[in-house]
Amino acid sequence: MSFLFALTFLTRIPVPIQLKYNEELAAKSMGYYPLVGMIIGIILVLLDKILSLVFPLNIVNVMLLLVLVYLSGGLHLDGFMDTMDGIFSGRNREKIMDIMHDSRVGSFGVIAFFLLFLLKFNSLTVISGVIRIPALILMPTISRWFIVFIAYNYPTAPSSKLGKSFAIYLTRKQVFLSSLWVVVIIIVLNYYFQFSYYFSFILLIIPLILVVFFTNSINKKIGGMTGDIYGAINEITEVLVLLILIGLDLLMVS
Predict the structure, then answer these.
(1) Is 140 exposed, middle or buried, given 0-12, 13-18 or 19+ CB atoms closer than 10 A?
(2) Which candidate, 214, 209, 49, places its Cα nearest to that of 132?
(3) Please, are residues 231 and 78 in contact by the beta-carbon 8 Å criterion?
(4) Tens-digit pLDDT profile for residues 78-130
(5) Which of 75, 116, 126, 148 is deepest in the core (most CB within 10 A)?
(6) What percent of the chain has pLDDT over 90?
(7) What is the Cα–Cα distance from 32 to 15, expressed in whole angstroms?
(8) 3-state secondary structure of 103
(9) Could you tell me which residues come within 8 angstroms of residue 34 by beta carbon, excluding any fewer than 6 positions away?
(10) Is the alpha carbon torsion for 35, 20, 17, 66 positive or negative?
(11) What does the alpha-carbon distance between residue 57 and residue 67 come to, in Å, rounded to a whole number?
């Protein structure tokens, strides 16, 4: 039940039963976030293989990004843009929260979205060969694990709605389960694609440092996390995973 809720909440993938929302189930479902990320990644891999038979790489990458946005319903991307509008507004805490809650997208959000898309698109263009499949799977997997990690380790902002309902019922059990899924997925990628454990370790450590730095900065500005910030963390982590993979691949070649 928790897995199906996570699948329903994080994606547009249909499930065989209709689930009613409740805060406790929402929190329990977070233990399956990386698994849902892996499913998204597998869909991207399959589409990448099929589309590559017909279209050039640039077109394939645009289509993959469109599918990624569609599968998530734009949930995290919306949070990313709202967060960028708020934190770059230069306003006080209350005004930042008002901006983040505003359904309209401001100039900072649009600029941030454009730069994010460019980074993802160009990163996918560079990533090819043996690391492409692990990249497409780990990008949505690790990013969704970070949502769980941050939700558990940081308080929610006083005016947060979605983020608060998740964090209240979130326990170590969900953090452990989500972490276990990440480990299992990394082991599978190593077994089937010889993806280095060393690479996997770096893909977790470097984003962890950067995301914690980003989260600490947000925490000082508004006094906690929100659902929008979780979305921003997801989007930022996806880009970091791709960029770090590119750097690691270039280092290995040289």
Answers:
(1) buried
(2) 49
(3) yes
(4) 989 988 888 887 777 777 787 777 777 778 889 999 999 999 999 999 998 88
(5) 148
(6) 57
(7) 15
(8) coil
(9) 141, 142, 144, 145, 148, 178, 181, 182, 185
(10) negative
(11) 15
d(CA 50, CA 48): 6
- Backbone φ/ψ region at 3: left (φ over 0), alpha (ψ -120 to 50), beta: alpha
Mean pLDDT, the chain, rounded, equals 89
Q: Is the dihedral of CA 54, 70, 78, 218 positive or negative?
A: negative
Q: How far apart are alpha carbons 165 and 2 in whole angstroms? A: 15
Rg for the chain (alpha carbons), in Å?
Answer: 18
Please report, for residues 8, 47, 48, 50, 67, the alpha-carbon distance to residue 63 in angstroms, rounded to integers and kept in the order given: 22, 9, 9, 12, 6
DSSP letter at 225 equals B
Average pLDDT of 148-152? 93
Do residues 3 and 21 lie in contact, with contact meaning Cβ atoms separated by under 8 Å? Answer: no
The token duo for 181 is: 């899924």
Report the alpha-carbon distance of residue 100 to residue 86 in Å, rounded.
5
Give the distance between the most distant pair of CA atoms in the chain: 53
Res. 191 pLDDT band, cuts 50 70 90: very high
Q: Are 151 and 229 in contact (CB under 8 A)?
A: no
Instruction: Report CA-CA distances (Å) from 158 to 84, 143, 215.
Output: 19, 25, 16
215: tokens are 């989260």
Give residue 165's pLDDT.
60
Retrieve residue 19's tokens.
């689930």
Query: Apex CA 213: angle with CA 211 and CA 219, to 5°?
Result: 100
Amino acid at 16: P
Cβ atoms within 10 A of the Cβ of 177, count?
Answer: 19
